[in-house]
Amino acid sequence: MTNKALMTLVSFLGRARQDSKTGYRTANYRFANGAIHSTPFFGLALREVIAPARLVLLGTAGSMWDVLIEQFATEGEDEELRLKLIEAATENAVDGSLLDAVTPLVERALGVPCLLRLIDYGRDAEGQARILDSIAESVSEGHVSIDLTHGFRHLAAIGALSAFFLERVRGLTIEGIYYGALDMTENGETPVLRLDGLLNIERWLDALSRFDQNGDYGLFAPLLCADGVAPDKVQCLLDAAFFERTLNLSDARRRILTFLPVLGEPLTGVSALFRSALAKRLEWVRGAGLMAYQRRLAGFYLHQGDYVRAAILGFEAVITRECDRRKYGTQDHRNDRKPAEEAFEAEIRTGDQPRAVGDAYWMLKNLRNALAHGNPSALEKVRQIIASPERLPAELQRAMDRVLN
Q1: Are the C-beta atoms of residues 114 and 107 closer than 8 Å to each other?
Q2: InterPro entries under this entry (predicted)?
């Protein structure tokens, strides 16, 4: 359940003049529960429905701050201040100090703390970034709902992006993104749309991008869970991520194989849109043995600059191949790796392996030992390679290619 004590509603104020007193024309906004709220300012209706503890109202120097204040002021109240605001709004000259002065009037009318804040017009990239910064500074903690109904049309796009920005950068919880769809009015009722799906799409895009950078299967777990995938299947991805990080690749692969049938069936929600993209990233495990899995991950970590994991997994791929070649033990060769390593090294020493393969093996093993143990190698050549950001990835790649091919 949402903590109302930490709920903030962020709404935008535009500059339409369809009505001389209210600016916007009054609409009958219909919410999902069937309730109808009549108001020219959708944010006020939304405030009644979600009952936030705080309201943030954002607008430009030319927004209808004057007609908004007229909604709250009683006749004769703060007349001089209201006239000053009306004059400033007419000249597109409303400033922050003037909004601070009228804020108590709004708070008395609504009964909740309010923040009235000017934002940039967002005419260029810098101005749009300033809007995001203003929104982020206006909400520092808790849960947030965003109303995209009023304001310039391009502010709706910026507002939707701000939801993702607040969630990703500030760690806030986005409860909802709302839009009063005046152009969809029928029979005198205007539907209220929830645009949370936009945020879910951005979450999926972010998860895919981050997965391509770090290979963490667990990134998809909360997204799939939110769209109704069975918890035990979602847990398979979390387990696979853990096992892979601890280099238990056999169990990681088994958990992914257990999860894959989920992607063979239709998914619900936004997850359906990304089912094929996720399947493409996981499908490779169906035909891959342990050696292929280790080699793939070694290449992945090498590309990401994680040279310790790359060297460890590259070396382990060699030993797994030798276990397979000698038909040692079980599928994961847990108890047969040392004998396979010793047998292959004996072949190198007796000349039963090409010299290029032997040299590549010793280079890979020496790099693995130095990187994994964090101690300087006894070999000057290895120390020089590890000290060079250009040579290290090149030598690792060359050694893995030669010994594994």
Answers
A1: yes
A2: CRISPR-assoc_prot_DxTHG_CS, CRISPR-assoc_prot_TM1812
- List pLDDT tens digits, range 103-119: 988 888 888 999 999 98
Asked whether residue 205 is domain-assigned, the answer is no
Q: Give the SS3 label for residue 173.
A: strand
Residue 123's pLDDT is 85
DSSP 22: T
C-alpha to C-alpha distances, 312 to 15, 39, 89, 271, nearest whole angstrom: 62, 65, 66, 35
Tell me the three state secondary structure of residue 378.
coil
Same-domain status, 135 and 226: no
Looking at 245, 269, 286, the residue that finishes a domain is 286
Give one word for 354, left, alpha or beta, with left for phi > 0 and alpha for psi -120 to 50: beta
Q: Is residue 204 part of a domain?
A: no
Predicted confidence (pLDDT) per residue in 193-223, tens digit: 998 888 889 899 999 999 998 999 999 999 9
Q: What is the pLDDT of residues 353-371, one digit of tens each?
A: 999 999 999 999 999 999 9
What is the token pair recorded at 106?
A: 């709004």
Q: Which domain holds residue 97?
A: 4-194
Q: Are 227 and 267 in contact (CB under 8 A)?
A: yes
How does 88-102 read in b/e, with b if 16+ C-beta sit within 10 Å? bbeeeebeeebbeeb
Residue 138 identity: S
Q: How far apart are CA 233 and CA 231, in angstroms?
A: 5
Cβ atoms of residues 61 and 118 within 8 Å: yes
